[in-house]
Amino acid sequence: MHYKSTRNSSLRLEASQVIAKGISDEGGLFLPVSIPSVVSELEALSGMNYNTLAKKILSLYLTDFTKEEIECCVDAAYTKSKFEDVNPVQIKKLNATASFLELWHGPTCAFKDMALQILPHLLTVSLKKQKQDQKALILVATSGDTGKAALEGFKDVENTEVVVFYPENGVSPMQKLQMATQEGKNVGVCAVKGNFDDTQTGIKEIFTNDEIKKTLYEAGYSFSSANSINWGRLLPQIVYYFYAYFELYRNGEIKALGDKVNFVVPTGNFGNILAAYYAMQMGLPVNKLICASNANRVLTDFISTGTYDKKRDFYLTASPSMDILVSSNLERLLYLLSGEDSEKLSSWMTALGEKGEYTVDEDTIAGVKSIFYGNYCDDSETEDVIKTVFENENYLADTHTAVAIGVYNKYISETNDNTPTVIASTASPYKFVKDVLSSIDNQVIDDEFDMVTRLEQLTGLQPQAQIIDLKNKAVRFDTVIEKSEMQNYVLSLFSPAKDDL
Ligand SMILES: *Cc1c(COP(=O)(O)O)cnc(C)c1O
Q1: Is pLDDT of 198 > 90?
Q2: At the N or C end, where does the chain have fewer CB atoms within 10 A?
Q3: CA of 133 relative to ligand 1 center, distance in Å
Q4: Helices 271-281 & 231-250, crossing angle to 10 degrees?
Q5: What is the pLDDT of residues 60-79, one digit of tens each?
Q6: pLDDT at position 166, please?
Q7: What is the pLDDT of residue 221?
Q8: What residue owns the CA closest to ligand 1's atom 8?
Q9: Which residues line ligand 1 (CB under 6 A)?
Q10: How open is the CA angle 98-102-105, to the nearest 5 degrees?
């Protein structure tokens, strides 16, 4: 299996090259030249445990990896000690037709662990195959969840260094504490006086600065990416859609292999739901993919009109990991649905950069609509959902998952569709304890850990030890810099002159 780019269809790279590079030189995103089918193998796959299934699916895409290399990566990532159980994801029933796929039982209590626990292993193997003797220097901009998951995934991984930048006032207190107390010899965390966009822009400037690249190359470092444009983050996410389907089959919620299901996915960068689309194209029986947004409803509007318009107000919401106006992974979907036309795709992406919007052709948006349903929930709807679902169904949803439930409710009232449905549950409610607690309780509490205690008393749901333990961990990182200082900060850490500073 070779890989090409959304902006250059004639490119042919190996999987290990694609994972090591992260993004294509001309700015496009890598994808496999074709999508492997498992339609004739559903019966055999349905009997596999999580890791066996993961090895099978990864092997269809990572064709320049050996069987042993894939086995080592999967078995090192998904362990009982990291994910509470031998199977890293859990299915919980909501009602007669809908179930939750809980993806947050990993080390950082959000779904990003599903990919970021395995990516460092995939990257290490890829770098060896590419005979790259440089250390991989991974710079991350985060609004909270990706940063912590990347730190935890890459901590003490040989030949890697990871530095995370987060907006000083743009993450939840729990997220800030998770990052500031991070352990490991090869990690760094730095707060930036600015917003998330400033940190993202700062990193792009470092990535594209030839002088910095050269200085760091001579010091033994090459840049790599851990955000969701890397194919190595998308691929592991395909597995749990198959696993969820087979769990429903094994539980009798699906009568026959081949019966269709819906997936509801709370969406920001379009990575998680794109993995569901890949699963569908591989032969997983899917009826609709339901794309749930918060008040930053750029995808809802795109799915209904065919125009993607980022020129709009940006809202800070109770579901911060979905506060995004440029959903990078949509580029991969549009490439696939526009007849794999890299010129057409490039022109849309150029228009987005220059004019802040683009409109796709009739066929492409018709293709999107035949598979995707899009809608959104604002913060007050989200709060109502958390309260109602807790009181009526005894399920405590985090703010992101609640957006998905709310959008599913809108879908049902519009369509009366009774297809069995899986809702992706993407974070522990304790990670967003303030907004979750205030949805079901009127008492005013100031301290985050007192809120955790109160939420446990009210719901009986045990908080993860990783959350409780934060209270007693030493803060290792308290540096705050101006946004103009990001380049010097990176150089001070990794250039040879650092001993002189
Ligand atoms: C990142 C994130 C999302 C959005 O996922 P995308 O792949 O960016 O669409 C949803 N919920 C939580 C909790 C997240 O951390």
Answers
A1: no
A2: C
A3: 33
A4: 60
A5: 999 999 999 999 999 999 99
A6: 93
A7: 92
A8: 269
A9: 110-112, 145, 228, 266-272, 321-322, 400, 426-427
A10: 165
